[in-house]
Amino acid sequence: MRFTIAIDGPAAAGKGTISKGVSAHFGFAHLDTGLLYRAVGRRTLDGEGPEAAALALTPEDLNRDDLRSAQVAQAASKVAVIPEVRAALVDFQRGFARRDGGAVLDGRDIGTVICPDADVKLYVTASPEVRAERRYLELSGNGADISRHQVLADVKERDARDMERAQAPLIPAKDAILLDTSDLSIDDVLMAAVAAVQDRVSPTD
Ligand code: CDP
Asked: Ligand 1, residues 18, 30, 31, 33: which to mutate, most atoms within 8 A of Cβ?
């Protein structure tokens, strides 16, 4: 059985939590495509050229434990502007989306570019302040020395870069279901996402 769920949205909107919850609920595999860009960004911080880094990406790169920092997030959004970097990552993502047993992919361009024919598309968002607060708690909880102010600035800067780039900008797909998580608890968000997917897995009408 092939079934693809595309989950897109701006920085720290809760895509990861929703993707993990939805994939666990339906027994689907999950790919966090942001990790691909973070891993390329990480390699460029080590001095490699962006396109070469994207072409040379290995599973070990994705398993590094230093990909979640604000510095790597910024590097990721900078390499993500480069068409050659995006092109180098397309086949892997599409192959994952087509795997047997169902797949959930989260990112910025999954419903628009990578999987325009996805069975379900969600666009997850929340106000910049709510997203920054969530990311601040996550980063500071992991021991990062960073202020709320810095995290909000980082989130806004990445959103602007992601939305304004020429290639695969962040934008909701026309047929995406919008989910604003600003005033929802994690449980509420997950229930809404699972219900949206369930509707398509077994339509009641
Ligand atoms: O976790 P967060 O939402 O903050 O970011 P992420 O999903 O890990 O993505 C990091 C960066 O990679 C984003 O700011 C985008 O610039 C880029 N990205 C992208 O361009 N396309 C994707 N499908 C996924 C991520």
From this structure: 33
